[in-house]
Specification:
The chain is α/β, with parallel strands linked by helices. Helices cover 39% and strands 17% of the residues. The longest helix has 22 residues. The protein is globular and about 75 Å long. The structure holds 1,4-dihydronicotinamide adenine dinucleotide and magnesium ion.
């Protein structure tokens, strides 16, 4: 049963109601940015060449923590998309589908190694362009992206083994559209399995975070991949739609909002194009009274506040067993008060900038709705930088299951708390959502973990940990969280036809 420690009890007696945060402050420890220079302008990477957009149009990508313009990026129109798909088709027919699988494997190993060598550059640019803390991009995003290329390099010449001895055929040209929350990692999740299985690719990164995908294009160029095997086109929704609708595309892979996912599903229906969708989530992180509470606090904090809650599988609904709710919330608020919000490039930062003004508006709107619906709000009182887009870590208690903050994906550092009394009630509440991407269970009892995992309708269930990833384990959702899996042996089936 969770209890407050002696020190916590003493503090409660002496200063009731006070949240205990930082007792000291760290000196700034910013990551260096003087070891690279971004181009002023990035063109489209089509057929192994940097091509000026036929649209003649460019847009700026900014750093959400300072609002400074980082670079101009080409905006691909229908003609540019057409050229990219044509280049991918040509590369498929001419080179990639004819190559020995073991040679595809070598190229993927080469990309993985080159990425390893440039890990620091990719981490810094990821944090600059998207606003996530360098701790995250350096220790999570980039290493996982590398691991993904290594993992799939290993599969390229063993696909028959992956499918129990049956032969497989590649699909052709894959159109891949990715979001802004894990720009490099999502590019790796999409490109690595597609290439390993013998397909060629046209990838469109999100409009607010195109830079690491463009650096990846430069790296792929250095790795001397046959021209057109990987094409990167930048632009916003219109560019994405042009890519999805292109008649010469064989497979569409999308990660992003459920709204756009549904639109894509409709556009692809009846065309014969293969489709996988990885959409939103509203994960329940379930804490039982017998859980190791201090450990659970770390999992709750990491599950929603690191990365500003810009994670589709974020543990955005905390389900706490009623008997420990007070103690857990007390511990949670104390821990939240120690979170450092600020410069994404500072090595001490836990919570960086919100990705865009649009996303910040959405978070503010939902938080206001939460307050209006009667939930109790606690936000960390920290000084937020004057420029850029910021939101303080926030937790709601007294949340009703039907309220918007309990149902809609907020995609920000905002946690909604509900309580339960029995495992069955926890399961019912956890599954009472349109989504089904992930869930977390915190308990001392192994039997309870298996019981819960079997009943939770979520693609991933983490036990006594949260947001742990590995290229060997498949990831994907149920219901409105989409379909298809990425990673693991299962993830390969999205990119092959078993014959
Ligand atoms: P979005 O779904 O509009 O953007 C994702 C990608 O799809 C971007 O590359 C975008 O350019 C592209 N896109 C947009 N419209 C398209 C269309 N009609 N056809 C093809 N591609 C299109 O997501 P957005 O607007 O950036 O964020 C809105 C909300 O979506 C967020 O607040 C969050 O709740 C959710 N979201 C979920 C993500 C996830 O990983 N599941 C990632 C990003 C956002
Ligand atoms: Mg940006």
């Amino acid at each position: 049963m969770g209890k407050l420690s002696k020190i916590e009890k003493k503090r409660d007696r002496e200063k009731p109601g006070i949240v205990f945060g930082n007792q000291w402050d760290y000196a700034p420890a910013p990551e260096a940015t003087d070891f690279f220079k971004l181009n002023k302008r990035y063109e489209l990477f089509i057929g192994g060449k940097w091509q000026k957009p036929r649209s003649k149009s460019y847009f700026a990508t900014i750093s959400p923590s300072t609002e400074a313009v980082l670079a101009e990026v080409a905006e691909a129109d229908d003609n540019d998309v057409d050229a990219a798909v044509l280049a991918a088709r040509h590369a498929y027919d001419r080179y990639w589908s004819r190559l020995a699988p073991s040679d595809r494997s070598k190229y993927l190993f080469r990309i993985a190694r080159a990425l390893q060598e440039k890990a620091r550059l990719f981490a810094v640019v990821e944090s600059l362009d998207g606003g996530k803390p360098i701790k995250e991009s350096r220790d999570v995003d980039v290493p996982l992206a590398i691991a993904h290329f290594f993992y799939h390099a290993g599969w390229a010449d063993k696909l028959e083994l992956a499918f129990h001895g049956r032969s497989v055929r590649s699909l052709g040209v894959a159109a891949q559209i990715i979001p802004w929350n894990f720009p490099l990692l999502m590019a790796a999740w999409k490109i690595a399995p597609a290439l390993a299985c013998g397909n060629t690719v046209v990838l469109k990164p999100a409009e607010t975070t195109p830079l690491t995908a463009l650096l990846l294009a430069e790296l792929i160029e250095e790795c001397d991949l046959p021209p057109g095997v990987v094409n990167i086109v930048t632009g916003a929704g219109k560019t994405g739609a042009a890519l999805v609708n292109h008649p010469d595309v064989n497979k569409v892979a999308f990660t992003g909002s459920t709204d756009v996912g549904k639109r894509i599903a409709r556009a692809v229906a009846g065309t014969g194009k293969r489709l996988t969708l990885e959409l939103g989530g509203k994960a329940a992180n379930i804490v039982f009274a017998d859980a190791p509470l201090d450990q659970a606090i770390e999992g709750i904090i990491g599950g929603i506040f690191f990365n500003q809650g810009h994670v589709c599988c974020a543990g955005s609904r905390l389900l706490v067993e009623e008997s420990i709710a007070n103690v857990l919330m007390r511990k949670l608020r104390d821990r939240m008060a120690t979170l450092r919000v600020g410069d994404p490039l500072d090595k001490n930062t836990d919570v960086g900038a919100i990705n865009s003004q649009m996303q910040l508006d959405k978070i503010r709107e939902l938080v206001a709705a939460g307050e209006k619906e009667g939930a109790e709000r606690f936000s960390v009182s920290c000084q937020l930088p004057k420029k850029g887009f910021w939101f303080p870590p926030t937790v709601f208690t007294n949340v009703s299951l039907s309220s918007r903050i309990a149902r809609e994906e907020i995609f920000g550092p905002v946690l909604s708390t509900l309580t339960f009394r029995t495992p069955d009630e926890a399961i019912e509440k956890a599954n009472n959502t349109a989504y089904g991407l992930s869930a977390g269970v915190w308990t001392d009892k192994g039997s309870k973990i298996f019981h819960m995992a079997g009943k939770l309708k979520a693609g991933v269930v983490w036990a006594n940990t949260y947001n742990k990833f590995d290229p060997t384990s498949p990831f994907g959702g149920y219901k409105e969280s989409g379909f298809g899996r990425e990673g693991g042996r299962q993830g390969l089936s999205a990119y092959v036809e078993v014959v």
